[in-house]
């Protein structure tokens, strides 16, 4: 079941992000900077084709994918790794599995009202972020 994730979303909360970044092996200096940022998400969805831009004053990260199609994801803007990524719908949630060096890595997006929820997972750490829709 496809949910409309289109829009511009501004971060309102970011819980346990430092532990998530530690699980990814991100160094302390970058973790300190990243923890201070409030990211925006710009999502363009055309059926099962997505373009997700994660935007900040420090680094930006872009994803372009089709649901259900595995692809090699270059995470050089995140933790400098590559992984095989597959994203599928699980009911009304968009669930990503990233196969690579870090066990249990992935994320889940879902919408409640005008909020976009994002759960980030890596190596047993879980970060929960909430974004508010602006357009």
UniProtKB/TrEMBL annotation:
<feature type="domain" description="Cytosolic fatty-acid binding proteins">
    <location>
        <begin position="7"/>
        <end position="24"/>
    </location>
</feature>
<keyword id="KW-0845">Vitamin A</keyword>
<comment type="similarity">
    <text>Belongs to the calycin superfamily. Fatty-acid binding protein (FABP) family.</text>
</comment>
<protein>
    <recommendedName>
        <fullName>Cellular retinoic acid-binding protein 1</fullName>
    </recommendedName>
</protein>
<dbReference type="InterPro" id="IPR000566">
    <property type="entry name" value="Lipocln_cytosolic_FA-bd_dom"/>
</dbReference>
<comment type="function">
    <text>Cytosolic CRABPs may regulate the access of retinoic acid to the nuclear retinoic acid receptors.</text>
</comment>
<dbReference type="InterPro" id="IPR031259">
    <property type="entry name" value="ILBP"/>
</dbReference>
<keyword id="KW-0813">Transport</keyword>
<dbReference type="GO" id="GO:0016918">
    <property type="term" value="F:retinal binding"/>
</dbReference>
<dbReference type="Pfam" id="PF00061">
    <property type="entry name" value="Lipocalin"/>
</dbReference>
<dbReference type="GO" id="GO:0019841">
    <property type="term" value="F:retinol binding"/>
</dbReference>
<keyword id="KW-0683">Retinol-binding</keyword>
<dbReference type="InterPro" id="IPR012674">
    <property type="entry name" value="Calycin"/>
</dbReference>
<dbReference type="InterPro" id="IPR000463">
    <property type="entry name" value="Fatty_acid-bd"/>
</dbReference>
